[in-house]
Amino acid sequence: MDFTLHVWRQAGPEEPGRMEILPAEGISPDMSFLEMLDLVNERLLAEGKEPIAFDHDCREGICGMCSLVINGVAHGPDRGTTACQLHMRRFQDGDSIYIEPWRARAFPVVKDLVVDRSAFDRIIEAGGFVSVRTGGAPDANTLPVPREEAETAMDAAACIGCGACVASCPNGSAMLFVAAKVAHLAHLPQGQPERERRVLAMVQQMDAEGFGNCTNHEECEAVCPKEIPTRFIHEMNRDYLRAGMRARV
Ligand code: FES
Prior knowledge:
By secondary structure, the chain is of the alpha+beta class. It has 2 domains: 112 residues, Beta-grasp domain (Ubiquitin-like (UB roll)), CATH 3.10.20; 132 residues, Fumarate Reductase Iron-sulfur Protein, Chain B, domain 2, CATH 1.10.1060. The protein has 9 helices and 7 strands; from the N terminus they run E-E-H-E-E-E-E-E-H-H-H-H-H-H-H-H. A 5-stranded mixed beta sheet has the order 2-1-5-3-4. A hairpin with a 2-residue loop joins strand 6 and strand 7. Helix 2 runs antiparallel to helix 7 and helix 6 packs across helix 9. The termini are far apart.
């Protein structure tokens, strides 16, 4: 298969960016999207040119590092799929493919398709942890957790922190990410002692990082590779309101 790539190239955070047209020829339909980029990079290097910088790690949909807007959609055309799990057979031979980085004020471009997502780390540092002694795994397993609560916590814990929710939101909101991290702990007994402090601190940090607010577009849910539902945002809003009122009292 042959493709024409339109790739965002930007030498550094302060440099101006532009779309560059690059050929991607002789691509196997069974290649993943990142393998296709690897091949393009090998050819660029062989020609003495600068390879395309892009983030990746596990290439199995686990780490959340791959962060590409493909043809205008975060992670590309397949629902519930990360860019690293997308295959070239999903495209037509001869297609033009537009590849851009996450675009959000809180995710500045580092180089080409790589953005700085350390804002997410700082939100987690603000409250995405438990400080009670939980012991080892066998101790945790002796704590009875109602099945429904355990399932909900697991649904929220599926978030891989890739940032597609932010990239797809017209407000650049991180509400789905923060809501998933808040809900993950709020549905477990170990997360109860700091439940109110946690939601206040994480939302405060989210605002400080420059993420926008949620106005119910629900683009985030549509592109989330783990299909985290927006009902976690509603849940977080209730927790935030309750915690704020109690803090004032
Ligand atoms: S590289 Fe890890 S989720 Fe895509």
